[in-house]
Amino acid sequence: MPEHIKRKLLEEIKLLEHELAHELPAEIKKAVALGDLSENAEYHMAKQRQDFVNARLGQLKKRMAELSLVNLANIPKDRVAFGSTVVVYDSTKDEEIIYRLVTSEESDVANGQISTTSPIGRGLVGKRVGDVAVVVTPNGKRELEVLKLTTIHDEAGEEVPQNGAGGAEQ
Does residue 36 carry a pLDDT above 90? Predict the structure, then answer.
């Protein structure tokens, strides 16, 4: 898992846990002291916030667990996957576009950082140079031909067989 993503998630978890353990109990106690709970807006707001914080904490902890399971050894060295930088030719727009496949937390479409779970990311995952991905986006169907691929392994400086030679087929 990228270290900056881990720090960001842990920071949010820490803030929410503090709110849940210290701030919300104080708000609820203060609201209860105001009396009749059936018409006590402060009490209901604090309870709703408490439910939201609990749900968000659950989501964040689940995401941390998912990201910690990412094993670089399982990421292909000759196909588009998490961490890849891909140059594609978009025949719909008649232009070359560079995408980097990242986690949903890092996604920044305007800067070419797309999530592996986005429509384009899902369409490109598993493709090799020369493959064409037909992707259905909110703006319609697009054909993206993979022109160049740099995997996470290439960027780490690992030895990668050229042109797919010597790689095991899956």
Answer: no
